[in-house]
Amino acid sequence: MRSVTPGTSRTTPPPPARDDTAARRAVVAAVPGPATEADGAPADGRSTRWADHREARRAELVRVARRTVHHRGPDVSMEEIAAAAGTSKSIVYRYFTDKTGLQIAVAEAVVLQIQGALEGVLRVAPTPRDGLRAMVAVYLEMIESSPNVYAFVTQDGSVESGGPLGHFLDSVTALVAAPFARGLTEERDGRTVARRPEDGGAAPDTATRALAEAWAAGAVGFVRGAGEWWLAHRDQPGTPDREALTAQVAAWLWAGPVGLLARDRPARDRPDRPRTSAHPAETHQPGDDAGTPREQR
């Protein structure tokens, strides 16, 4: 529509339309939008609920897999696990890349349970020796309760280097090393010597802690090896039951550090030996008693 200027017959064109696209964009950009996550996805209730649902579903699949392996054996197929979960194998693969991924997930659940039990028994053990026996007992009870699950999570290729089983063994090593560094040694006359667990003593130095950690790593490996041997031979004549094996393995392990450190203990501090006789550890050469460890009290 054209406008007419009053008093004239001349018409004037309308002003050109204003292009305010840029202005509108600036206003829109200034208005706060919905909160976003680090990857740019909206952090709304739907995404949170989906993440929670996915985590819950994954945990349920791990429980079903563990139960299925327990009843059917470590060679159970992914199809059997999916059927037990009431779903398809393709759905299971959405949560676990392959069977190895599922094995690692089950291993994580198992080792967390064992680690919690170990922390509990070591926390209340009155002496390091009691803690050692409790550690052996927990491990053997675990593998006896479900040999199939234990085999499933420790099969070749099921746990890569640095995987859950490796982290578990590292955690157990640290748990065992700390009380033994405090309980087996003390500083006396400028040297590190063995002492009875019930005695008091100074905090261990760095070298003592390192030696205790090295021993603990070996102890954990020894317990694991003895346990797996026992699983394979427990039905054969002469094989000890779990309680007897627990006591024997704990005695072997305890004799190692105590017997070695006893070389530095003066005769007057050995209440279990006659004062006039030398301790065998002081007179025997390495290898004299190979295979026959002596339990020290």
Can you describe this structure?
The chain has 297 residues and is mainly alpha-helical. 59% of the residues lie in helices and 4% in strands. It has eleven helices and four strands; from the N terminus they run ββααααααααββααα. The strands form two sheets. Strands 1-2 form a two-stranded antiparallel ribbon. A two-stranded antiparallel ribbon has the order 3-4. The radius of gyration is 34 Å and the shape is globular.
What is the top-level CATH class of the largest domain? Mainly Alpha
Which CATH-level-2 architecture of the largest domain? Answer: Orthogonal Bundle
Q: List the secondary-structure elements in sequence, H or E.
A: EEHHHHHHHHEEHHH
**Helical content (DSSP H or I, runs of 4+):** 55-70%
How would a crystallographer describe the biggest sheet? 2 strands, antiparallel
> Helical stretch count?
11
What is the global morphology? globular
How far apart lie the N and C ends? 111 Å
Query: What is the CATH homology-level superfamily of the largest domain?
Result: Tetracycline Repressor, domain 2
What class would the helix/strand composition place it in?
mainly alpha
Strand content: under 5%
Average pLDDT for all residues: 71
**CATH topology-level fold name of the largest domain:** Tetracycline Repressor, domain 2
